Amino acid sequence: MQDLNGMERFAPGLATLSREDLAGLIVFTILWTLFEAQALSTNAALGRIVELAERWGRDGHLESRWHMPVFHYFKARYVENGQPTQHFENLFFHDEKSRAHTLATLGGNADGNAECLSASLLIVYRFRNDFFHGMKWAYDMKGQRDNFEHSSQLLVGALKVVQKLRHM
User: Fold this and answer.
1) Which helix (H) or strand (E) holds 80?
2) What global pTM score does this model have?
């Protein structure tokens, strides 16, 4: 892996990350960039994410339930006894509509696959914002590997759908 060339002074905690943690961050960054460019036409926005999930649901791209293992991971992490966990509160949703949609879906009020995918993608979008805009650096990325690995798994699945659509 390339030397980080003194980046620690700009990103405190970077030098203490394991190779696995650092690789997870790099993979997530690349996958998010590809997903945003290819699935969202370089314009990630909450409404567009929900519309994408709804369209894929209508068009049958979620019938295999490829996204559900990640949804279940997020559900276990963010809801306990029907209530949001502290981890959920730390996602820092900036609008009540996406927060309410995500929490209701994680809490078991999903009508189908599209809601589960959109809730999962909205969480990944929060990871993206927190990571790219600095919130995750505030606590040195500790405990984030599973989040980034699951997010990357979801993004790979989404990119497979995009690739399939291109070849139709």
Assistant:
1) strand 79-80
2) 0.91
